[in-house]
């Protein structure tokens, strides 16, 4: 199984990008024992002036067939880390070939996105800078795998 983080936009050099790469590398190492073959970041460059509808189409088209799509959106369902880890693990056990967390363009997704998403996930009610959403998503991938493998990284109570 592949775990991927799709970001609409280019990851520019800087501390946020280094954190994304670090968390995804950690996740790749952590996931080996679970049969996770790769943990990657896909960057989707959208031309300036691309409509939200065209951005949605390009983003969903960049995710492989049979993949589960977890769309990050401010209107999404709030989920605990444990719930998120359990969901990813259930999909892994079902043989899903890829799970992709999708971070939309800085101005957000075109609505409605529900028909194309397996889950629409919110990261809280606060507004987050786009670069930090990349970091938060990468960290949650790592945290979910750590929780599933029993690593001490996650200090919460496993469910």
Structure overview:
The protein is of the alpha/beta class and 159 residues long. The chain has one domain: Alpha/beta knot (3-Layer(aba) Sandwich), CATH 3.40.1280.10. Strands 2-1-4-3-5 form a five-stranded parallel beta sheet. Strand 1, helix 1 and strand 2 form a beta-alpha-beta unit. The longest helix has 20 residues. The mean pLDDT is 88.
**SSE order, as H and E?**
EHEHEHEEH
Category by helix and strand content = alpha/beta
| Count of strand segments | 5
Please give the CATH class.
Answer: Alpha Beta
Strand fraction: 15-25%
Tell me the distance between the termini: 23 Å
Sheet with most strands: 5 strands, parallel
| Number of separate helices | 4
Helix proportion: 25-40%
Q: Give the CATH superfamily.
A: SPOUT methyltransferase, trefoil knot domain
* Computed CA radius of gyration, to the nearest angstrom: 15 Å
Give the count of structural domains: 1
CATH architecture: 3-Layer(aba) Sandwich
How do the strands line up in the largest sheet?
2-1-4-3-5
State the shape. globular
Average pLDDT taken over every residue: 88
Residue runs with pLDDT of under 50 for 5 or more positions: none
CATH fold title = Alpha/beta knot
Quick overview:
It is built from four helices and five strands. By secondary structure, it is α/β, with parallel strands linked by helices.
